[in-house]
Amino acid sequence: MNQNWNLLTGMAVGAGLMFMLDPRAGRRRRALMRDKMVRAAHKTSEGLDALSRDAANRARGIAAESQSRMRSDSADARTLVERVRAELGRVVSHPRAIDVSASDDGSVCLMGPILAGEAEPAMAAIASVRGVTRVEDQLQRDESAEGIPSLQGGRMRPGQRMLMDWSPARTLLVCATGGALAAGWGYASHARHTSH
After folding, report:
1. Dihedral over Cα of 68, 73, 78, 84: its sign
2. Which uninterrupted H or E stretch holds 142?
3. Which of 93, 114, 129, 177 has the most CB atoms at less than 10 Å from its CB?
């Protein structure tokens, strides 16, 4: 078995060398290979830059969130409305359809149409906003957006993000995990075959 493996490896290396050193088309193939390697190096560099920027931004965000938690929870009505609107933008697909009002004592009132499946997560998220003491629910829950102009369009709902929307750190983690699993499976398969 080991001799067969060595023979196949030698044949593959020989075929690759013949392919790259061919007197007629070898120069063009080598140039194409060089261009692909340069492009891959640039892509890797850009990916690492994006990854480092993402990690730095996340670290700054965690630091800012930690600082904000140490500050007083009280906020004026205008600040509270801005915080609630920012949170709505993260948890619902049509945040502009919802009217937000607040008072200086931390009470918040939500009015307007919302998709029924998003209502409870939105209420829970708003209740956890810093400075909110009470949430008055006057939302009109609708099973679908059909016939409701303010619920048309909107952004993708939470939980439906595509791979292309993932952060660079998450993408790298998923790719690395997949690669490690594939390598482990290949090693286990090879070990199984050589033990027979």
Report:
1. positive
2. strand 134-142
3. 114
Spatial distance between the Cα atoms of 40 and 57, rounded to a whole number of angstroms: 25
Q: How far apart are CA 112 and CA 95, in angstroms?
A: 10
Structure tokens at 28: 């063009």
- The H or E element containing residue 171 is helix 168-195
Q: In this predicted structure, what is the pLDDT of residue 41?
A: 83
Q: Can you give the pTM of this predicted structure?
A: 0.44
Q: Is 140 exposed, middle or buried (0-12, 13-18, 19+ CB in 10 A)?
A: middle
Look up tokens 């949170």; give the residue. Answer: 87
Query: Which of 195, 164, 177, 169 has the alpha carbon at shortest distance from 49?
Result: 169
CB atoms within 10 A of CB 95: 21
Q: Could you tell me which of 72, 65, 135 has the C-alpha nearest to residue 106?
A: 135
The Cα–Cα gap between 136 and 108 comes to 6
